[in-house]
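request received
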Amino acid sequence: MEIIGYLLDALTPLNLMLALIGVILGTVIGALPGLSATMAVAVLVPFTFAMDPAAGLIALGAIYTGAIYGGAYAAILVNTPGTPSAIATTFDGFPMARRGDGGLAISLATIASVVGGIVGAVALLVLAPPLAKVALAFGPTEYFWLAMFGLTLIAALSVGNTVKGLIGACIGLFLSMIGVAVVGGDVRYTMGMQRFLAGIDLTSAIIGLYCVPVILDLVANADPHLKPSDTGGLRFAEGLRYSLSRKLNVIRSSVIGTVIGILPGAGGSIAGLVSYSEARRSSGNPESFGKGNPDGVIATEAANNATVGGGFIPTLVLGIPGTPPDAIILGALLVQGIKIGPTLFTTDANIVYTFIWGLLVATILMLPVGLLIGRYAYSSITKVPKAVLAPTVALLTIIGAFAIHSNVDDAQLMVGLGILAWILNRYGFQPSPIVLGLVLGSIAEQGFVQTYLIGSASGRLTEMFFMRPISIGIIGAALLTLIFPIWSDWKAKRRNQILQVSEPMADGGTEITPEPKTRDVPGMVLAVIFIALGIAIYFGASTLSALGSVFPITIAAALVGFSALLIVMNLRRPAGGPSETLHLDGGAKRRMALGAIMLAWVLLMPEIGFLVTSIIAFVAIMVIADYDRPPARTWAIWIASGVLICVGFWWLMANVLLLRMPAGVLF
Amino acid sequence: MRTALATIFAGLLASTPLAAQSVEDFPSQPMTYIIPFNAGGESDISARFQQSEWENVTGHQVIIQYQPGAGGAQAWSQLNSLPGDGYTIMGINLPHTALQPLEGSVGYATEDLTPVHYFHYTPDAIFVRAQSEFTSLEQLVEFAKENPGLVTFAGSGSNSSNNLAAIRFNEQAGVTTTYVPFSGTGPSITAVLGGSTMAGFNYATSGVSQGDAMRMLAVASEERLEAFPDVPTFKELGYDIVGGAYRGVAVPASTSEELRQRISDIVSEINAQPAFVEKMESAGFVLTDIGYDEMDEFVAERVEEYTAGAKALGIIQ
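response:
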């Protein structure tokens, strides 16, 4: 009953106001790719020093949960996860938005996020000390298998195109190895370049891989970015009815999110991927996932917001932060003189429980706040003319990639990877397997090498890898995920053979292109390049320490193997078919011009300065993206708004987020 | 009127040595303090402790930013490209900045960096979880002698202070143990608490945050720690192991001598604040007061020590 008493402490006007402001701020920051919860929380920590500890914590917690939710907007509306937690939201959220169901997708994301957040916070409120044991039950072996489980999702995501999916995963895994290795300490595959030392930054890679292709396609034709919805608005009532009919999915995903949130280092992206995979597996209609199935959005968003409450469990009970924002909040608590650890829930019960109630209140506030911001975001994305939308999104990608480390290198990498991703996607290599490899690579590698070291020390290597009870459970789930799509694929083929009906072709750039039945020459050329890359990786590993070279050698072998398989499969197919000649139509020219401008933008930014390059590039992209040839007055308004947008973001970054902006010759 | 003008003129004259004056008034605006690691580690927490005293001491706030990557090398390799006006400072660590340049091309050399003050260190320590059969270091050493390689130590990273200490422990105790690197203090403590490894080579600070859940068997400090009066030092037990991770504040190389000294003095002054001392010591940090004037000597000594360690690690021949 005491616990209930603290609810009143959380409901003081000050705490309510902090929760509300925190959620609004968090949602906006989360919606902008690259501006992360970590950044917002880090900037605001000093202000909480002067506050009552519980009030300060409520503000920080509200920003955190708001940001995880806000990530869904960018995922749904521009196919770019606003935070890595929303990676799986893009799979179905963006296809929904393209066909005119963007409002519904936002409503579903909001409802799922609120429910997921509540489940996580309630777990934190009533079960924190016993649940913290989950964090300890997960050893290196379990992390390794969890990463493997995540990778099996590739099989499901690339049905009918599995080999290309696997090659993409190998490339992602390779990208994750670049930089200084945690295990072994080797400097790997940096080609002697300073910028690769810290590895490929996940957030800037995600922005590049997902968002740049969208912008390139955006300017290539005059069609609207999203199909306008027939009914308009967010269709909240419809979303609520749908969510209620999917109770099981919502609850299952929230529980998965809470449990994975408890695991330090796993985080919202893995929680989203695992619950997405589970939703797909248990669905009666798995083929529709990845093509705009609302259940995919529900699963991911319920799970990633549940990780917020879940992540606080090890942070508060064990003093082991689950995620970077948790770590900053942990530091803020220590500065306030609060001792973290098992006794926290008794010695400082008033602070802890007031905070948890506050987090719960903030989560519930997400519903009205989210619906308001969501309505505005959706209608502006659909109404803004393409000539303004394209440069704005391009600006956001560059800001996002730059802001992570105040480093232009990240923005350059982002644009480079993005253009590469567009080309690969064109020939059937999807970005998602690459991203999965990149997200899961370091977890898989560390888990593998640590298990190997511990297993070899005790001479029980097989037992370590395969006999631990939790591991067996994860391996089982992974096998199910892996085999299920292959089996249903086979069943579908059988049915088709009987019916003599050819498979329907999927449409749209973001969906899975079925493998052509004739020889895929560009695919084969790329496969040869990948074989060369694999050989280079293999030889690059020869100078590394034993610990640091195990993983690269395995990946190199897999990359060469899958690429060779792709070539062999194609050689068995008949040559010819509609041969593809490279003709430069207007769309292709616009795409190339845009790619060139974005490259020039990030390359010249450190020389000339952020603001000047941004304004010039903004106007140039406007010209490329314009199909309407409007009167000069409209142009003047567009350019003025472009300048305003650039200056506004520059001011925000330099003076609010206190980033070190590239100055250059001008400004 | 004339006197007023004269006063202003005199005032202007007095302020002519602009550099000297600006150092005295330094800082006149908030400073930025870059932590080359993720939030939540020892570097971040000690900087946050400093941050809460910063305004009392200097009259201005300090803003903490994180620039993690490559075990700190990402930020250190960019330190000298930052403006040397004193308003941007960066956390700096040993043995990291001594060992990393030995491992390969990391974009900086140890002597490129300009530390102005090392304000504390966290001694290495051996931990076991509460349920462990080992209650003293002696038992652990005996077990390790009977079962070569079987004892596993979780620690933070490869080629780190923890790793050096584990190697040195093997030498000094004449045992063979297995060091398992994790991606930071948090994950390695999780491995110890969860029983994934038999023991851990971590920093003494973890003993405070974990309370009764973990047992510290020995600590690599010169004297017993305030927070752990019952835990023996390695020295007492006959092993010559003293060390840990030192943390300080560095400035870009273009920073003037006066500013370097001034920032060193600010850090020193924070180190003397009773509230700061209380927080740091009860959290298991050991305060040091190595200012700018003693810096060269201190770094040279450490580098010599770590170079020997790097040979043992096999980083250099």
